[in-house]
Amino acid sequence: MILIILLSITFSFSSCNTIKYVPEGKYLLTKNTIFVNNKKNIDNEINDYIIQRPNQLVLGVPFPLHFYNIGNKNFEIDFEKWKQKKPNWYHFTAKVFSEKQARGIRNFKYNTHQWFLNNGEAPVILDLKKATQTVNNLKQHYYNEGFFRVNVAFKKQLLKNKKATINYYINTNKPYTIDHIITTIESKILDSIYQLHKNNSFIKKGEQFKLSLFVNEQNRLTNLYRNSGVFRFNKNAITFEADSSNYKASIDLIINDSIANVPFKIQKIKNVNIYTDYSYNTKDNTINDSINYNNYLFLAHKELKYNPKLLLNSVFITPNTIYKDETRQLTRNHLRNLKNFKSVDIRYTELSNDMLEASIYLTPLKKYSIGFSTELTHSNIRQLGVSGKLSFLNRNIFKGAEILKFSIQGSFLDSKDAADNTSLLNAWEIGSDISLEIPRFLLPFGTQKIISKRKSPKTTFTIGTSLQKNIGLDKQKFTGIIDYSWQSSKTKKHSFQLLNAQFIKNLNTNSYFNIYKSELIEIQTIANTYFNQTLNTNNVIDFIDANINADFESTNPTEFRIAQNIKTRYNIITEDVLVPSISYTFTYNNSKNYKDIDFSFFRARIVSSGNLTNLLAVNKDANNTKTLFKTPIAQYFRTDLEFKKFWNLSLENVLAFRSFLGIAIPYGNSVAIPFSRSYFIGGPNDLRAWRIYDLGPGSTKNGLEFNVGNLKFISSLEYRFKIINSIKGALFVDAGNIWDITNSSVTESEAKFNGVNSLKDIAIGSGFGFRYDLSFILLRLDLGFKTYEPYLPKGNKWFTNYNFKKTVFNFGISYPF
Question: What is the reported pTM?
Answer without folding.
Answer: 0.85
